[in-house]
Design a protein that fits this description.
The complex is a heterodimer of chains A (294) and B (196).
Chain A lengths: L1 E6 L11 H14 L1 E5 L11 H5 L2 H18 L4 E3 L2 H16 L1 H12 L11 E3 H9 L1 H6 L9 E4 L21 H8 L3 E2 L13 H4 L1 H17 L4 E4 L2 H9 L1 H8 L7 E3 H8 L24
Helix pairs in contact in A: 1-13, 3-4, 3-5, 4-5, 10-12
Chain B lengths: L5 H9 L14 H5 L10 H9 L3 H5 L12 H5 L6 H14 L8 H17 L4 H9 L4 H10 L1 H9 L15 H17 L5
């Protein structure tokens, strides 16, 4: 059984906004024979907006503490994140630790206050990289027992699972991996020109009127291209596209009612998992188009 | 007229990744790549030139860099490979430490007064408390109004077990150590300078 050190992140906690991602990822990994060893006592990664209150060192110290705990508990096993912002924050911190000696030194001086140290060398990976590079396309396809035939899906990659690091060398402007995942389940990936447009991210909290306009354009593009469901790897994208549809309809005069699910939910369903295993009972907008495959 | 480089040199030294502003060739690809371009007054390209021109007040009081959604479009498209997203974050943070930002700037308030306090008070995001604190920043009336606007979404999330009905959460086991670590990191941050 392949094992990874696991960083779920705050939104994947029990009763948190991406609980549907977490529950379906756990089912997906069980079906793949992958064991995820959660870091004990992990803290927030500082997310996309931690720089404003935390500057450089306090912000990066948060990720450094997670690396230090991971190294102490699990050695240098690859660290897997499912949240785009967590993956990005940790990769950025690790890159600066490896490349800037004074950053490594300063962060270790700070870590010493918590009785910890971090030596570098842990590779941070996104779950989709594990699927593509370690599990492989052949296995992802061969596990399908209930092909999602005829299902029209818009693959919404979003920003941070794509930029600035990229996934497996895929294009920033027109990445293919999510469409390939959709096709691997037997579904059809519709043309989707907004696949890497920004949903507004955390701006949805502080300036929703600006963010709603961005999200509306993405939803409109999915609907115009005939999608029955949107699939995404990112918990902030999922939240903005699904939970804010009501507010968008109210403030921008639209009438959207399109479910937004995670890649992990599609795989679990196509591999013969139950509706609950895929955490499809945890959708605010019910994933009705997927019912016919349950 | 001689240029006053005092502000530019401060930014190069003290603002995160600020030293890279020297490399900007003013092409404007960042401006065309930004999803918030309909809203800001100055594009990243313009802010960088304003830094070089010594326009301290105009740059640091600007709301522009606070609109960054961290989409990283500018960073991957910049032909000179400047870390633009990080430079913009750095300018926002530098404006904050220099106490130049409009205290009412909505994203500054959310990021500094709500988000950072939320994560450092327990060690993890408490989503329910985060949302409540944000909604009630402008007092009870505004909070109730915003809460009502989002009522259906909140009920939907409670029903699907994606929102904790109890807004309080416990602290990490290593909370005291984490707090000391953050205090030390903040102390070291004050002495941090960019290496050109």
């Amino acid at each position: 059984m392949k094992e990874y050190t696991f960083f779920p992140g705050c939104s994947s906690e029990h009763n948190a906004s991406a609980a549907n991602m977490e529950n379906s990822v756990q089912s997906m990994c069980r079906m793949l024979g992958i064991k995820l060893n959660e870091i004990d006592d992990w803290n927030c990664c500082s997310a996309s907006i931690g720089y404003a209150g935390g500057g450089q060192l306090p912000r990066m110290a948060l990720s450094a503490r997670n690396f230090a705990l991971a190294q102490k508990q699990r050695g240098n096993t690859d660290l897997v994140a499912t949240c785009a912002a967590c993956w990005l924050a940790m990769r950025e911190t690790n890159e600066r630790i490896e490349e800037e000696a004074h950053i490594k030194q300063n962060l270790n001086t700070a870590l010493a206050e918590a009785g910890l140290s971090y030596d570098g060398h842990i590779k941070t990976r996104h779950m989709v990289e594990v699927l593509i590079e370690d599990v492989g396309w052949d296995t992802l396809k061969s596990k399908v027992t209930k092909p999602l035939k005829g299902l029209k899906v818009a693959g919404y990659v979003g920003c941070q699972t794509n930029r600035p690091f990229g996934v497996c060398g895929d294009s920033f402007e027109n990445p293919q991996y999510l469409d390939r995942m959709i096709e691997a389940t037997g579904a059809t990936a519709v043309p989707f020109p907004m696949k890497v447009a920004c949903c507004g991210g955390a701006l949805m909290f502080s300036e929703p009127e600006k963010s709603c306009v961005l999200t509306k354009q993405i939803l409109q593009s999915a609907v115009d291209n005939g999608a029955e469901v949107i699939v995404t790897p990112c918990p902030v994208c999922q939240l903005n596209l699904e939970v804010y549809q009501g507010l968008i309809n109210k403030t921008l005069g639209t009438n959207f009612n399109i479910p937004v699910v995670y890649y992990s939910q599609l795989f679990v369903l196509a591999w013969g998992g139950k509706w609950e295993d895929a955490a499809l009972h945890q959708q605010v907008i019910p994933a009705e188009p997927l019912r016919r495959f349950a | 007229m001689a240029y006053d480089l005092t502000f530019a040199k401060d930014v190069y030294k003290k603002s995160e990744m600020g030293q890279w502003i020297k490399m900007c060739m003013q092409c404007g690809v960042c401006a065309g790549s930004c999803p918030l371009r309909a809203h800001w007054q100055h594009s990243p390209r313009q802010l960088f030139q304003m830094v070089r021109a010594g326009m301290r007040d105009e740059v640091l009081k600007s709301s522009d860099m606070w609109m960054c959604t961290s989409c990283y479009n500018c960073i991957v498209r910049c032909p000179r490979e400047l870390p633009i997203t990080h430079i913009i974050h750095g300018l926002a943070r530098y404006a904050e430490t220099e106490k130049m930002t409009d205290p009412q700037q909505p994203t500054r308030r959310f990021a500094v007064e709500v988000f950072w306090k939320n994560i450092t008070s327990t060690g993890r995001v408490g989503e329910a408390m985060l949302t409540m604190r944000l909604y009630f920043l402008d007092g009870l009336g505004a909070g109730i109004q915003r809460g009502l606007e989002m009522k259906d979404s909140a009920i939907g999330m409670l029903k699907t077990r994606r929102l904790n009905p109890i807004p309080f959460r416990g602290k990490l086991k290593g909370f005291d150590g984490m707090t000391k670590m953050l205090a030390k990191a903040a102390e070291l941050e004050a002495k941090l300078e960019n290496h050109a």
